[in-house]
Amino acid sequence: MAIFFTLHTLARTGEVRFAPWDEFDLEARLWSIPASRMKMRVAHTVPLSDQVLVLLERLRPYTGHYHHLFVTRHSGKPISENGMLYALYRLGYRGQLTMHGLRGTGSTLLHEAGFRSEVIWPSNPG
Asked: What's the CATH number for 2-120?
């Protein structure tokens, strides 16, 4: 589910792994990430697609009682970066794709489709 979520939001792995439920306003369809959690130290608001809203609705019964969205089954702690990478491996992408590579691929596809950089990365100061 974390890979699907990353593909739809193009968020950094750390932003996804440590995403707390209280950053999400499902009625407004927004994920508001505070500056303190962003690499560039600039707050970022991510619009949530229909697909992400469905994912969150399906995820809530399993992790809604934890602080973070994506937690391990046994400890309830946030999933690890390696956990996400190994999930890609299990999908057959060993040596072909990384979680960070998903962001680059998404950016490339959106640019090729004609989207401007400020639309793809609105919080990027550079």
From this structure: 1.10.443.10
